[in-house]
Amino acid sequence: MSTPRPDLAAPHWLVQLLRSSPVPVPWNMVARAVVALAVPLAIAYAAGDIAVGALISTGALPAVLSESAGPYRYRARRLGGATLAATAGYLVGLLTGGTPALSVPAVILIAAVSAVISAAGSNASVAGLQMLVFGVLATGQHATGVRVEVLFGCFCLGAAWSFVVALVTWTVRATSPERTAVAHVYVELAAMLSATDEAVSRVARHRLTTAMNTAYDQLLTARSWLSGRDAAYRHLLNLLSATTPAVEASVAMVNAGRRPDQEVIDHFVALSAAVLAGQPLPPPPPMPPGDPDPVLAALYAGLVRIGRGDDRKRREPTPWYRRLREWAGSLASGPLTWIAALRLTLCVAIAEVVGLLVPVERSYWITLTVGIVLKPDFGSVFGRAVLRGIGTVIGVGIGAAVLGLGAQGWVLVALSAVFAGGIAVGKVRNYGIQSAFVTPLIILQMGLAHTGNWSVVLARLVDTVLGCVIVLVFGYLLWPGSRRPQVGGRLADGLDAVAKYVSHALVEAASGEARLARSRARRGAYRALADLRTAFQQAVVEPSANGRQAVAWWPVIAAQERVADAVTEVGVTIGRGVPPPEPADVELLTAALGELAAAVREQREPRSMPLPDAGQLSGVVDQLESAFDAVRGPDLAERAPLRLVRRFLPYHRRT
């Protein structure tokens, strides 16, 4: 029987596209954005020249747009790289602007470079985007009549100001982001164990996986900057490592449909508070009298281990030259980066030509829209183009209302603060929301600095629509492979990760190295599942074969998660009065998962595979059979890429 589709797949793709992520408002980011963007305007207005404040506020935008939660060291590197790249792009744009023979090749070259350096990682990708955005923006500044050195000086002042605002609390908060990330793991553990509904508990398990991944990423990133003697980071990382057995036992208990005593849930809440406050951890609750079952015993043993902590070996930081060599290797080993760079460069070139041929005011906004929407590794191109268009229309309406009401002085400063806060909220909620607030903010900045009027509003609307059309036509509809389904390959990789987890989780880990390998395999499997859900969320918004395939694959994704949870349920009992399964049975499970992965990659039905009949593995076998049924489900034809549908359908009908 095929696993039922979730509500996520039922509504129209546009509903999914407009759905806002249910995450808390990042008030810290909102406050920093308001201070970084509105304070220069307020000071300049009080001094009698708000136009200078608008120029400085423009320089503060790169850090605000690149802001991200995480450790201060990580944010310093991310924001510093983005600010420097934006400053370099802005300078090139200023020096070449006004002369199409120079500005057009410069913008195209910046676009190609920004796409190529994206392969170096997330921070490099953000820096490349800011370099492109502000390089394009600067090419239109020649029309202001302000000297280049004044424009560049104001931009640098604003960039420095926003960088200081983003990191000013480093000296007093220090490890607070990392403490918050670790404490959040305990909060999600308590939420998962408190859930009384299966659907709610599964969502809570997803949030727990995200919290674990975030905490590990932040701590490992922070420690890579240190000499290895920082006690605070070492303590937090050891604490998180020691929490892994409790996480595994909690997932096993939820998968079995059981709940622990309230004292266990309260203990996780107390652990969270102690970590946040930097206080000693509370003692774990005693195990209930009697002979508890292995899963419950594993949970209480995990609580005791949290108090003891682990002694992890420090991961040695990767030298810069090795990271550079890996980046160069990624460029040489595969075509994906070059294809993305070619697509971005081509669309930017088309936008530049359109800006020269079509008589529109401030035509550089066409290229700006193309660069923002089509930048690699930022999700669905189709989704971003549609959301950018919708957000801009709304933003233009807001900007038109501001200009129509004739707002002046402190009212403009207050409105800029509101728009700045909306950008911070939109970054974590929905790209369309971010666009809706970025648009009126830039309209105000341009209007204050360049004697703006209604033409600014109309130009913003026309140029953005043209840019979105260029992206949709040349970067999506006509670009080879842009609509080709991609979720299936990620699903096969996830099945391989689960198979690796099975080979480590269902054997007795007698040594510390074996336990560490099992822990890493578990994190790898659940991280792959989390990445797969992210890929699904990005693809499901497309009204193409890619979106249809994502919807059709959803039952298999859900079944894969249940297989991993069932494996965890068995794994936590091994060594606690329960012997491990026979090696031959473990090999049968890994072989079955391997066959599923091969079937997904080859777009065929999986062959029937022998499965263990041991009672200990009955839960895993049941979920694995459900996964096989899901792959053989009625939507199998939708999962095949377009180039394989015609060849595959006759075989599917025969079966």
From TrEMBL:
Domain of life: Bacteria
Keyword annotations of the record: Cell membrane, Membrane, Transmembrane, Transmembrane helix
TM regions (residue ranges): 29-58, 79-102, 108-138, 150-172, 381-403, 409-426, 433-451, 457-479
Subcellular location: Cell membrane
GO cellular component: plasma membrane
Ranges of residues in domain Integral membrane bound transporter: 351-474
Signal peptide: none
Pfam families: FUSC_2
Main location: membrane
Membrane topology, record value: Multi-pass membrane protein
Similarity remark: Belongs to the YccS/YhfK family.
Name recorded for this polypeptide: Uncharacterized membrane protein YccC
